[in-house]
Amino acid sequence: MKYLGITLERPKIGVFGFTGCEGCQLQIANKEETLKNLFNSIEVVNFREISSDGCDDYDVAFVEGSITTESEVTRLQKIRNQAKILVAIGACACLGGVNNLKSRFPLSDVVKEVYGMHPVDTGPVRRLQDVVSVDIDLPGCPISKSEFEWLVRNLVLGIKPQFPQYPVCVECKQQLNSCVFDMGMMCLGPVTRGGCNAICPRNRFGCWGCRGHSEEANFESLMRILRERGFEDEHISERINFFNAFNGIL
Amino acid sequence: MSKPPDFNRQTILMQSERGFKSEIIAAIPLTAKEKLFHIRICDPCERENFTFLPGQFIMIELPGCGEIPISISSSTSNKEFLALCIRNVGKVTGMLHRLKAGAIVGIRGPFGTHFPMEKMTGYNVLLMAGGLGIAPLRAPIYWANNHRSDYKDIIILYGAKEPEQILFGYQFEEWRTIYNLNILTIVQKADKRWPGRKGIITDLFGDIHIEPDNTFAIVCGPPVMFKFVCAHLSTLGLPRQRMFVSLERRMHCGMGKCCRCNVGSTFTCLDGPVFDYWTVMNLKEAI
Amino acid sequence: MLFKTITKENFRNMIEGIMENNEVIGPKSRDRDTKGAKIYRFLKLNSFDELEMDYTRSYSSPKNYFLPFKEDLATYDLRDTGWEQEIRYTIHPRIIVGMRACDINALLKLDQVMLKSQYPNPYYSARRRNTVIIGLDHEPLEDCFCRSMNTDTAFHGFDLFMTDIGEKYFVAINSDTGYMILNRFDSCEVGEEDQLLYKEVRGRIESKFKTQVDITIVPELMDLEFESDVWKRWGDKCLSCGSCAMVCPTCYCYGIEEDIDLNFDKATKRRFLYSCNLLDFATVAGGHNFRPEAHIRLKYRYYHQFRGFVEAFNQSLCVGCNRCGKACLAGISPKAVIDDLIGTEKR
Ligand SMILES: Cc1cc2nc3c(=O)[nH]c(=O)nc-3n(C[C@H](O)[C@H](O)[C@H](O)COP(=O)(O)OP(=O)(O)OC[C@H]3O[C@@H](n4cnc5c(N)ncnc54)[C@H](O)[C@@H]3O)c2cc1C
Ligand code: SF4
Ligand code: SF4
Ligand code: SF4
Ligand code: SF4
Ligand code: SF4
Ligand code: FES
Prior knowledge:
The complex is a heterotrimer. Chain A is of the alpha/beta class. Chain A folds into 2 domains: 2-157, NADH:ubiquinone oxidoreductase-like, 20kDa subunit (Rossmann fold, 3-Layer(aba) Sandwich); 168-240, no CATH class. Chain A has helices at 23-29, 32-41, 70-82, 90-95, 107-115, 145-157, 168-174, 199-202, 219-228, 233-241; strands at 2-3, 6-7, 12-17, 43-47, 60-64, 85-89, 136-138. A 5-stranded parallel beta sheet of chain A has the order 4-3-5-6-7. Chain A has a two-stranded antiparallel sheet with strand order 1-2. Chain A is globular. Chain B has 2 domains: 10-111, Elongation Factor Tu (Ef-tu), domain 3 (Beta Barrel); 118-280, Rossmann fold (3-Layer(aba) Sandwich), CATH 3.40.50.80. Chain B has helices spanning 15-18, 44-49, 91-98, 134-146, 169-177, 223-236, 277-282; strands spanning 20-29, 34-41, 57-62, 66-71, 82-87, 104-111, 124-130, 154-160, 182-187, 197-198, 215-220, 243-246, 262-263, 266-267, 274-276. In chain B, α6 (223-236) links the parallel β11 and β12. The radius of gyration of chain B is 20 Å and the shape is globular. Chain C has 2 domains: 2-66 and 88-207, no CATH class; 218-251 and 277-342, no CATH class. Chain C is 34% helix and 22% strand. Chain C has 11 helices and 12 strands. Chain C has helices spanning 8-21, 101-114, 122-129, 176-184, 192-207, 218-224, 229-235, 243-247, 294-313, 323-327, 334-346, and strands spanning 2-7, 23-32, 38-44, 70-79, 82-86, 94-99, 131-136, 160-164, 168-173, 187-188, 254-260, 266-273. Chain C has an 8-stranded mixed beta sheet with strand order 3-2-6-7-8-9-1-10, with helices on both faces. In chain C, α6 packs across α9 (294-313) and α7 (229-235) packs across α9 (294-313). Chains B and C meet through α1 of B and α1, β4, β5, α3 and α4 of C. Bound molecules: flavin-adenine dinucleotide, iron/sulfur cluster (SF4) (5 copies) and FE2/S2 (inorganic) cluster.
């Protein structure tokens, strides 16, 4: 591959899963028709969804899921040591994601509730960046295939990817959606990182913040707006903490 | 009903939208971060017709990567190629630095206002540059040399961070002797091997004599520099309309459409980048 | 200007006739707000019945049919060290029904920038010239302040402009295309009675403006009150969400992004509409942001609307539709901000 005379290297990549639903990994593996092009530009050396034999010679590691056990910590550190670039993919890896629900209850209760009489070794939910240094966060729950491919193109070109700094509202308005606030619903779009094409408001759901908060989001103003519109703090807090995207501002 | 009669009217595509295909004919490293690119418009006819004035800029595009504004850093009479001095700071500039001679890029322009060299006839010209600010000054310097008898004394003051970051130092001797102009440099930080002056550019004012009634000034560099330099020149009595600065803003079109280069009530790409200092003072938050 | 009338029945025939061969865009409703009121937007119509001639205000302006939110400017075939560029900017002709006077005036302002300036924009021009505009009068809403902006009536910039005078529409004709379209369907000459009815309707419309914004000294105030804490007060509420600029009929600023495909042999240059309220609007390489704070960005949105554009074109950019005020969750509207600005001046 060449770009304006520059020879482009095909990066070797590995895809790894931790505590998550594998939805993000599936996003990468699905849509067969584009897989061929994808494999033209990258060399997949370790990806369980595609092939069972994996090797440990990769440059870029895409890591899904959050970290809950000590054995996961060790495994992640090994990946970090190997990879030149470590990309956290999906809300679980970037934010803690839905797994984070667990952190809102005392750990012993959770263990009992989930594992009953057979408690296992499980710790608090941690984002990848709480355990190792992360180079790039690819947000979303799940991630979108097109954004993943865009990221790959940037990696191949050797460009640092620039994610939108603006909130979801921009793209929401561009879809000519009705604002779900007008329809009496709550939405975190004004403080959530854009780039998803406002897929939830487009389907008349408020945004839950799966892409993390937008740059310099004005939480104070949003809280005022939510309260003015009669939303209860309990309801707000449930929404805001769902993906752990807002550092528990309420 | 059939189609109404005057539907699908043609509109004309301007060259300012299409741009010129151009070839990089040389990429010369100057310092660790800056390279000088010689770029030649591919089509001989377009190349012949391409003219610009000192201080104007072009938009340079790498298809699939991005498009950025860059000042033209060569002589207006050079019909062979355009020289662009580019610092590697990000996406597009980083990719440009990886390109080799032979690569094709797109350029649009020239855009913007220019240093009014014609108005300066009969005056002394004082050119002041900080860091990369020397790049847009090369065009007026060449111009002044080509019309040397039009101007009285020409003085260049150039400030850089360190000796290693001085750009075009290899030309200074030629400028001094052949172009007959005075050039003084100063650096902020240097070890003992640096024989020249240490300090900031305003320190050089002590070394030269400025006749406020007879001088035009051109200032190019970071915004803090404008502030101090222009304030100093004003106290000397130089009218603000005889000081010219070149502003930098984010740009996406170069044609007054995207608004990204908005400064106060106007746009840097249309009414700038070269502004006289009186106008700058009148524009909100220009510096 | 020429005038005619057309019965509502014939108007229906006309739109249905046009629809056979052309794309027709008009206001239609999809959702309802909490009070049960319909929310309208300009969309492609599939039948005449979808067109809601009694609509109040479209949530977003129809500007996106002239300046799309996203638009490919050029595509490239990359090969070896070079490339070929292809530019396509033609569109299929289309018709927009039901545009308000303010929206038509907004287009006239965009024309100043996009057509009548030093660098005409061919993409906009292709859309503008190949779109037939059928305007429609209405009684002003509570918060419309187009009267103050002098944009409550449109005298040009459209093909046909209709006023409901009961049984019929009173139609102003402003282009050959409009004249031809109207002539293919049964239209009538304007009778004395029609003229009376029209005057009466216009009078009624004019008497119903409730909101006024005094903008006479606003351009000066923008400079005088540049450091005013009015900006901080409103800016602290601002979410920097860009909704105001997206729905606004006159905000036109944009960004350019380039993209490349996975085989690295095709590239696209794309324009996307932006907003000066967004954080990185004025960020340059190295991370320096010329407008780092929300209140500074908000101030500049007003500065461009009410000061910068005045300097360039002798008129405000804003047409007083208050869409931005409606869309802003934080309750920031031109009326409120400007009243506040004038207030501090008097205090
Ligand atoms: C009139 C003018 C003349 C210039 N002349 C020169 C020159 O001679 N030499 C030189 O090295 N640099 C010059 N610059 C600065 C140069 O344009 C930026 O360094 C360049 O845009 C950075 O692009 P990037 O993609 O590498 O950086 P990134 O940080 O990756 O920027 C991403 C995008 O942001 C925009 N952007 C970022 N910074 C700027 C900026 N300063 N101005 C405009 N757009 C920006 C561009 O669209 C760019 O593609 C000039 C700028 C202006 C306005
Ligand atoms: S629905 Fe949500 S994302 Fe869309 S405009 Fe309203 S607040 Fe913003
Ligand atoms: S709208 Fe919000 S919750 Fe939905 S995909 Fe986008 S960021 Fe995630
Ligand atoms: S003024 Fe309102 S709509 Fe505009 S960016 Fe600020 S919060 Fe968003
Ligand atoms: S007011 Fe702001 S958002 Fe609107 S066109 Fe001007 S710069 Fe763009
Ligand atoms: S009222 Fe708001 S949305 Fe309407 S034209 Fe003025 S600035 Fe734009
Ligand atoms: S660069 Fe687009 S308006 Fe100046």
